[in-house]
Amino acid sequence: MSEHDDKRAEEHGDTREEQREERDESGNRLRKELPQEVSASVPAPQDIPEPDPEPDPEAEDPERQLTGRQRLVQGLWPPRVSRAQLIVAVLLFGLGFGLAVQVASNSDNDSALRGARQEDLVRILDELDDRTQRLEDEKQGLEKQRDELENSSDQAEEARKQTIEKERQLGILAGTVAAQGPGITMTIEDTKGTVEADMLLDAIQELRAAGAEAIQVNGVRVVAGTYLTDSGKGVSVDGNKITAPYRFKVIGKPQDLEPALNIPGGVVQTLEKEQATATIERSSKIVVDALRAAKRPDYARSSSQ
Questions:
Q1: Which H or E run includes 220?
Q2: Are 248 and 185 in contact (CB under 8 A)?
Q3: Do 252 and 204 form a contact (C-beta atoms < 8 A)?
Q4: How do residues 35-50 score in pLDDT, each as one tens digit?
Q5: Which of 19, 175, 192, 257 is 20 to 30 Å from 38 by CA-CA measure?
Q6: Strand, coil or helix: what is 42?
Q7: Given its phi and psi angles, is residue 24 left (phi above 0), alpha (psi -120 to 50 degrees) or beta?
Q8: Which H or E element spans position 107?
């Protein structure tokens, strides 16, 4: 090998040696610098803060651990009642109590009809039909009077006749004139002294409802303003004391008056429960001659004057 080649080889070897040394130095610098950079950018495991544990909703809210039935019990007891709810509850209680009393009262009134015989029910229906017919007849009579007044040639004379007839009818109702006609006589025997004023008043009201036009009790005329009170061992009618036996003289249609007193739970059965007896007799002529004095009103006057 020539000397020139040997120099080139030596120079080439020096160059490669320098390059190796440069690579080693650069590698050492990287190794020295890398841990520092990593340590500066990446925190140590012990320096990393641990995340806070997520709260357990069931542990914080004990109500969520309760079952549906337990929550229902807690909501109902102890009761929480406001003033408005209390007032509503009292009103509802009063309404329910009133309805219960009304139903019980209706049941008591209907109990007599439920236990009545078929013949009694038929008689009651006939009585209602008779009352309806009487009202219809009265309506037709009033319409007839109206037509006569409208069509009469001498309206003044017709009006005078109707006025006299109306005065007579009102006199019978007011008890200022005597009356006679078909009707019944009812005699009440009270040996035990158990008949009271309200029982006689019920009999009078039942007779009026059945169409009685004139009533007399032991010589005392019964009118619209008649009142009855208990008086010792007897009864006082408009201040006149009467004693048993109580004798009713009634003018009206006998076929209506007698069934009205004998209906189930009516006057006759009530008297029998009080150990009193009632005897009813029909008659084609009953005379009611007890009179009441005509009383002039203190303040009322006819509007035609």
A1: strand 220-222
A2: yes
A3: no
A4: 554 444 545 555 555 5
A5: 19
A6: coil
A7: alpha
A8: helix 83-114
